[in-house]
Design brief:
There is one protein chain. The chain is elongated. It is of the alpha/beta class. Mean pLDDT is 93; it is low at 365-369. It is built from twelve helices and twelve strands. The relative contact order is 0.12. The chain has two domains: 5-145, 7,8-Dihydro-6-hydroxymethylpterin-pyrophosphokinase HPPK (Alpha-Beta Plaits), CATH 3.30.70; 167-368, 3-Layer(aba) Sandwich (Rossmann fold), CATH 3.40.50. The strands form three sheets. Strands 1, 2, 3, 4 and 5 form a five-stranded antiparallel beta sheet that branches. Strands 9-10-8-11-12 form a five-stranded parallel beta sheet, sandwiched between helices. Strand 6 and strand 7 form a beta hairpin.
Length: 369
C-alpha cells in the first residue's frame, strides 16, 4: 500500500460476548478497503472509569497500515461500531464495541470531530500496555515521551481527566531536592497559585533540628494540621490548577523517622482520621537525587535550623519515598531525576509544563500558545 500511515486503534467492549465483539471488529478492520496489516495486542480486562455499576471492559489495541485520511478512518470506525450494534448514549455508557483512533502516524489533529493523539491515552494503562506490546518505542507526538515511559507513570492504574476536581499538582521528594523552586516556577508559568509547606511558621522545627527530640510530636502535629488546612477540599477550587511543594502522604514518612513508638501510635491514630480529607493530587511530580546532592543544596541555602540535618537522615527519607512511590495509586507520577533536569532551563521547564497541561484540566498558559 503506497503512502500508508501506521495508525493505532483502541478497541473496547463491556456488553454481551465481549471477546467476540473485539474479534469481529478486528475482522471488519481487516476487510476494509484502505486498511492492511492489522496486528492486535493481547486482550486485557479493566474496570469502567465511571458508572461503576456496569460490566468490566475487555480492551486491546490494533496496529494498522492505512491510506485512509484521518476523518475517513474515523467514519469507517463508526460504521464498524454501528454494524456491531453500538448504541450511542451518554458518555461512559456501556457499549458492545468502542473504536478510537489513538495515534495516526505522528500527526497532531485538533478538529471539532477528531483529536489525535487521543486526548487521554496517556492516562490509560490498558491503552499504553497494548501500544508497548506492539511497539514500545512509539513516541507520543505532544508529550514527546515514549509510550513505555508513559505506562510506567501510571503504576497499572487508569485515570480520567475531571474538571470537577481541583487540579492539584503535588511535587514530592527529599529535603533540598528542589520542590519549592519547581512549584514556584510552574505556578508562575501557568499564572496560578502555589501552596508551600509551613516550614517558616512551625515554632517547633528549629528546636527539633537543634536536638530537642521531645518536641518531635509537637512539630509533626503542627505540620499535619497546617497541611490538612492548606489542602482542604472546601478551599481548593474545582477545575483550577494549583501547585504544592509536598504530597500529603509524606506525613507518615517523617513521623516514622522522627517519633518514638508511643508518639507514633498516637500520631498515626490522628492521621488516619483525617488522611482522606485533603484533596488528592491529579498529578504528582517526584523529584529524585542523591542525599549527598540534597545535602549540598541544604548547606548552600543556609537555613539555620537545617544545618544539623545529617546525610543518614536523608538516606532514611529517600528509602521511604521510594517505597511510597513504588506503590503509588492515587495519580500519575512523573519521576524527574534532578541530575537530568534543570528547572532554570526554559526548554526543560516548558517541556515539563506541556506534560502538566495534558495531565490536568485548566487554562493553557500563554507560553504554550
Amino acid at each position: 500500500m503506497s503512502n500508508a500511515i501506521t495508525a493505532y486503534i483502541g478497541l473496547g467492549s463491556n456488553l454481551g460476548d465481549r471477546r467476540a465483539f473485539i474479534k469481529k471488529a478486528r475482522e471488519a478492520l481487516e476487510s476494509t478497503d484502505g486498511i492492511t496489516g492489522v496486528s492486535l495486542s493481547d486482550i486485557t480486562e479493566s474496570p469502567p472509569l465511571a458508572n461503576m455499576e456496569q460490566n468490566r471492559y475487555l480492551n486491546a489495541v490494533a496496529e494498522i497500515q492505512t491510506n485512509l485520511p484521518p476523518e475517513t478512518l474515523l467514519k469507517t470506525l463508526h460504521q464498524i461500531e454501528n454494524s456491531l450494534d453500538r448504541r450511542r448514549q451518554e458518555k461512559w455508557a456501556p457499549r458492545t464495541i468502542d473504536l478510537d483512533i489513538i495515534l495516526y502516524g505522528s500527526q497532531i489533529i485538533d478538529s471539532p470531530t477528531l483529536k489525535v493523539p487521543h486526548p487521554q491515552m496517556h492516562l490509560r494503562s490498558f491503552v499504553l500496555k497494548g501500544l508497548v506490546q506492539l511497539k514500545a518505542d512509539i513516541v507520543h507526538p505532544v508529550l514527546s515521551e515514549p509510550v513505555s515511559v508513559l505506562l510506567d507513570r501510571l503504576c497499572g492504574q487508569d485515570f480520567a481527566l475531571d474538571s470537577v476536581k481541583p487540579q492539584l499538582v503535588c511535587i514530592a521528594g527529599l529535603i533540598g531536592v528542589g520542590k519549592t523552586t519547581l512549584a514556584n516556577k510552574l505556578a508562575k508559568h501557568f499564572s496560578v497559585e502555589a501552596v508551600f509547606e509551613a516550614y517558616d511558621t512551625n515554632p517547633f522545627l528549629p528546636e527539633l533540628y537543634a536536638g530537642k527530640h521531645e518536641l518531635a510530636l509537637d512539630c509533626q502535629l503542627y505540620f499535619l494540621a497546617s497541611r490538612a488546612e492548606q489542602l482542604d477540599r472546601q478551599l481548593l477550587k474545582a477545575g483550577q490548577r494549583i501547585f504544592c511543594d509536598y504530597v500529603f502522604d509524606k506525613e507518615m514518612i517523617y513521623a516514622t523517622a522522627l517519633l518514638d513508638d508511643r508518639q507514633l501510635a498516637l500520631y498515626e491514630r490522628l492521621y488516619r482520621q483525617i488522611q482522606d480529607r485533603p484533596v488528592r493530587p491529579v498529578l504528582t511530580i517526584y523529584l529524585t537525587d542523591t542525599p549527598q546532592n540534597c545535602m549540598r543544596r541544604i548547606q548552600k541555602r543556609n537555613r539555620p535550623y537545617e544545618q544539623n540535618i545529617e546525610t543518614e537522615f536523608l538516606d532514611t527519607l529517600a528509602a521511604a519515598y521510594d517505597e511510597l512511590f513504588r506503590n503509588w495509586r492515587k495519580s500519575p507520577v512523573i519521576e524527574l531525576p534532578m541530575e537530568r533536569f534543570d528547572c532554570y532551563n526554559d526548554a526543560e521547564l516548558n517541556h515539563l509544563a506541556k506534560q502538566v497541561a495534558l495531565y490536568t484540566v485548566g487554562k493553557t498558559p500563554k507560553d504554550e500558545k
